[in-house]
Specification:
By secondary structure, this protein is α/β, with parallel strands linked by helices. The protein has 5 helices and 6 strands; from the N terminus they run βαβαβαβαββα. The longest helix has 23 residues, at 130-152. The two termini are 15 Å apart. Bound molecules: flavin mononucleotide (FMN). Flavin mononucleotide binds at residues 9-15, 58-63, 91-93, 96, 98-101, 126. Its cofactor is FMN.
Length: 153
């Protein structure tokens, strides 16, 4: 099982969450390939050859997608994900009005593009604490189980 992760992180919180997720996935024998969205990857290239896909982002502005996710958002408007299994994770700050708004935005874009959300999204307050790490481990387990179920059907 290969899980592809596309993430963007400015101050490191989302990067940390992705590291925790990668460890959790590897602990359950999934192979992880992570891409920094700021390095630039076309959506059709990212959404190929994986068994499951994770989008991970912080939130910018007033509940908005950060710059690193804007190209992906544009691309998603033009491609058909055709039922591909996707899960979304994000970090944010509850002192803002729209906590982890980028997670909600990414969920919407994935669904509009025909992707399947296979795990409840995880919203993390800043850098992951112990509770968030446990939530990420659960997220990893759910997405691997769901992706396996889908590939068997
Ligand atoms: C200009 C600015 C706007 C932000 N707006 C929001 C927001 O609307 N909602 C939210 O939950 N967090 C918001 N945040 C907080 C970041 O999303 C949060 O600190 C996040 O963990 C940063 O992730 P990173 O360390 O991966 O860059 C904002 C931060 C900055 C600097």
């Amino acid at each position: 099982m290969q899980v592809k992760i596309l993430y963007t992180s400015l101050t490191g919180n989302t990067q940390e969450a992705v590291d925790v997720l990668s460890d959790a996935l590897e602990n359950i024998d999934a192979e992880v390939v992570a891409f920094d969205a700021d390095d630039g990857i076309a959506a059709d290239e990212f959404f190929s050859d994986g068994d499951a896909y994770v989008l991970a982002s912080y939130t910018d502005g007033e509940g908005e997608l950060p710059d690193g996710m804007l190209d992906l958002a544009d691309d998603l408007a033009d491609i058909d994900l055709n039922g591909l299994p996707v899960a979304v994770l994000g970090t944010g700050d509850t002192s803002y009005e729209y906590f982890c708004g980028a997670v909600d935005e990414l969920e919407k874009l994935v669904q509009q593009a025909g992707g399947q959300l296979i795990a409840p999204s995880v919203k993390i307050e800043m850098a992951p604490d112990d509770a968030a790490c446990a939530a990420i481990a659960q997220f990893a387990q759910t997405l691997v189980t769901q992706a396996q179920n889908l590939s068997e059907n």
